[in-house]
């Protein structure tokens, strides 16, 4: 569905931030982008969303080059889920979700009953309709993140771009968001997400990209890419990836363990 070819970007003719980024995101894919702070992950997302416009290369959706498409047109293809945040005004949670229908409204038009029905269906699907009357800024981080996912879903774009969707969430809410991501991929969405937790690649993703200094250094299946050697190179710190057998569940999974040196 999404094909990025030789994408490069720099600010005001300064140092290149992204260099020849190429990848594909197909239907049902969940692609996890891993990398240190300042390596270009958010810059890449901003290019995809047309927030950074002066990039080189091509961005195609379903074989169509959207490089010169307007942000509103792109919003029909691609929806954005930012890190959990607050709003400048005390909107109700259901009003925040309704904002996702803007891409489908004409100039000056108001949401119709059909738009509100789409929002209600998504809230019920995510099991959060009972929270829709709460003030968004007064909700917990996990609740706000769920409503930001709902806002993206009502755009009815099949590609979701998520910037660290589990950032600043407690453990249970991290798991809940990862479960929703996996559910959405099974429903046909294509998802590109960034994360600072390599373990997340094993929990909800079928593809991984490792980015270092604005370049993709490895890409492929989680079990092939997320290895001790690759993570140690990526983060420049010792990380060990090992298999863990969950006896009661009869499941084997992989975990990433940072190695902290002991000083006598």
Helix-strand layout with pairing:
Layout: E1 2-10, E2 16-25, E3 30-34, H1 41-48, E4 56-61, E5 64-65, H2 71-74, E6 78-81, H3 93-98, H4 113-126, H5 141-153, E7 159-162, H6 171-186, E8 190-195, H7 199-204, E9 207-212, E10 215-220, H8 222-225, H9 228-235, E11 239-246, E12 251-258
Parallel strand pairs: 3-8, 3-9, 6-7, 7-8
Antiparallel strand pairs: 1-2, 1-4, 4-5, 9-10, 11-12
Description:
This protein has 9 helices and 12 strands. The protein is an alpha/beta fold. Strands 6-7-8-3-9-10 form a 6-stranded mixed beta sheet, sandwiched between helices. The model has no long low-confidence stretch (mean pLDDT about 90).
Number of helices, counting only DSSP H or I runs of 4 residues or more: 9
Low-confidence stretches: none
Evaluate the radius of gyration.
19 Å
> Major sheet, described briefly?
6 strands, mixed
Series of H and E elements: EEEHEEHEHHHEHEHEEHHEE
Residue share in β-strands: 25-35%
**Beta strands, count:** 12
Averaged pLDDT: 90
Helix content: 25-40%
> Which strand order does the major sheet show?
6-7-8-3-9-10
Oligomer: single chain
Q: By helix and strand content, what is the structural category?
A: alpha/beta
Overall spatial form: globular
* Separation, N- and C-terminal Cα atoms: 54 Å
